[in-house]
Amino acid sequence: MTTAPALPTADAPVKASVDVRLKAVSDAAQPLPVGQLLAWGDSHADPEVQDQAARARAALAGLRKRHAADQELTAITTETEQLEKRLAELRAREAELAPAKPKTRRKPAAYPAAEVRAWAKENGVDCPPVGRVPKTVVDAWREATGTAA
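The line above is the sequence of Histone-like nucleoid-structuring protein Lsr2; the predicted structure tokens follow.
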């Protein structure tokens, strides 16, 4: 067991470098709950301690808000995954039960598209260079060339 050094008496000379250290709080002491610690800080005489308590209170409020948001996001993610799984099951079952849709094919154009486009270009008629030729262009080409539909 260690003993504290004897304090100098009035007769004893005082050393120039006195090392006074506080003993650390023993590990056996239970830490104060956060609420009690904040109440102690709020009622403390030192404004710096009061300021620390206020900052700690604000930090805890932010942590509580973030914790609640994270919990809600986790619940939403879990529910979303469950709903997506259920939707995939329903779509698979729907595909099993639904009759097969016949594949439809467009019937080929009843006119030579390249020839109609060339005629439109020569005659200054607006015609897209790709895709279906507009009916108005085809009708104008038929009328000009005397081609039957």
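Note on the example: The mean pLDDT is 84. The radius of gyration is 44 Å.
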